Structure formats: C-alpha cells, structure tokens
Amino acid sequence: MSEQIGTTDGLEQLLRLEEKIQQTIELLKATRAEKEDLQRENSRLRQSLEEQTKAAQALEARAGKLEKEREAVRARVQRLVEQVDAVTAARAEA
Questions:
Q1: 33-63 CB burial, b ≥16 within 10 A, e <16
Q2: Looking at residue 38, what DSSP letter applies?
Q3: In angstroms, what CA-CA distances link 39 with 35, 44, 52?
Q4: How far apart, in whole angstroms, are the C-alpha atoms of residue 54 and residue 39?
Q5: Residue 81: per-residue pLDDT
Q6: Euclidean distance between CA atoms 41 and 37, whole angstroms
Q7: What is the Cα 36 distance to its own chain's centre?
Q8: How far apart are CA 88 and CA 94, in angstroms?
Q9: In whole angstroms, what is the distance from residue 86 CA to residue 78 CA?
Q10: What pLDDT does residue 2 have?
Q11: In the chain, how many H helices and how many E strands?
Q12: How does pLDDT run along the chain (94 residues), one tens digit per residue?
C-alpha cells in the first residue's frame, strides 16, 4: 500500500511538472510572438523615422533656399526704392 501511495505521489509530481513545462512552453511561444511583433513594429518605426528625417531635411533645404531668395528680393526692392528716392529728389530740386 505504501508503495502505491509513493507511486501516486510520484505520478502527481510528474503531472504537476508536466503542467509547469506546458505552461512554460506556452509562455515561451507567447513571448516569441510578442518579440516578433515588437521587431516588426520597431522596423516600421525606424523606416518611418528615416522617411520623416528625409522629409525634414528636404524642408530645411527648401527653407534655406527660400530665405536666400527672400534676401535677394529684399536687396532688389531696396535698390529700386533708392532709385525712386533719387529720381524723386532730383525732380524736387528741379
């Protein structure tokens, strides 16, 4: 009888161990799936960051170009104003 109790205890321990192993396997599967999802998300975010960085660089370059154009227009307008002032001053003296 005591041998049967020992065998039953051993089987119960084996069943608990098997259950824990199955739980561990399921946890491992879930963790791997989550890791793969996170890797895909990370890849997508890196690609998005790269695209946004390129877009930002293009906008910065365009802003620089527009700033130069604005300065050129400002200089031309200043020259024209000076010419108009000179003509106006010459007429006033005449």
A1: eeeeeeeeeeeeeeeeeeeeeeeeeeeeeee
A2: H
A3: 6, 9, 20
A4: 23
A5: 96
A6: 6
A7: 18
A8: 10
A9: 12
A10: 52
A11: 1, 0
A12: 455 666 788 899 999 999 999 999 999 999 999 999 999 999 999 999 999 999 999 999 999 999 999 999 999 999 999 999 999 988 887 6
Return d(Cα 52, Cα 47) in angstroms, integer: 9
Q: State which amino acid sits at residue 34.
A: E
- Please name the residue that has the structure tokens 């006033």: 92
Q: What's the residue count for the chain?
A: 94
Residue with tokens 């041998």: 3
Residue pointed to by tokens 């946890």: 27
